[in-house]
Design a protein that fits this description.
Elements: E1 3-7, E2 13-18, H1 24-32, H2 37-40, H3 50-61, E3 65-72, E4 75-85, H4 89-92, E5 94-103, H5 112-126, E6 129-134, H6 141-149
Parallel strand pairs: 5-6
Antiparallel strand pairs: 1-2, 2-3, 3-4, 4-5
């Protein structure tokens, strides 16, 4: 079971670990506590947490995915997902795809996001990835500065089609 200690610049030590099914409500709360997530995430509706629990089961069963949380004194305070994508491009290189990076409001500004991204960079390298990619909504200018500061380059325009 994946479990590592993240040391923050202020000396705080938090635990990064693989998410469990009982973490799903806290992860959904992190996703929904956001200017964009507030409109698209949450457990209201006829099926409540059902879609999230089904998605979690699928993610958790596939070793190509790592959904992780960060705990502080037993409370989930951050999350992200790493997916490993095999491909033929770049001489058959694997790509790491980072999704749903969220740090709870009470833990922002302490270096936790940086520690999480450094962990995911190392994990992608450990899993044999030639590159690590992520997307960030155009409105998230603070996030763009954050990712650029960690060495990510805004090298492509992304497109999506809602199905």
């Amino acid at each position: 079971m994946l479990s590592e200690t993240l040391t923050l610049p202020d000396g705080g030590m938090l635990t990064l670990r693989r998410a469990r099914a009982d973490d799903v409500p806290a992860i959904v709360a992190l996703l929904a506590d956001d200017q964009l997530g507030a409109a698209r995430d949450g457990v209201d509706g006829p099926d409540g947490a059902g879609p999230y629990l089904r998605a979690f089961a699928e993610i958790d069963a596939d070793p190509a995915h790592a959904l992780v949380v960060v705990e502080d004194a037993g409370a989930v305070v951050a999350t992200l997902q790493l997916s490993i994508l095999p491909g033929l491009a770049r001489r058959g290189a694997k790509r790491g795809q980072v999704e749903a990076v969220r740090v709870g409001r009470t833990h922002r500004g302490r270096g936790l996001g940086t520690a999480m991204l450094r962990w995911v960079i190392a994990e992608a390298e450990r899993r044999g990835c030639a590159l690590l990619q992520l997307t960030s909504d155009k409105s998230r200018t603070d996030a763009h500065r954050f990712y650029t500061g960690l060495g990510f380059a805004a090298s492509h325009d992304g497109f999506k089609l809602t199905l």
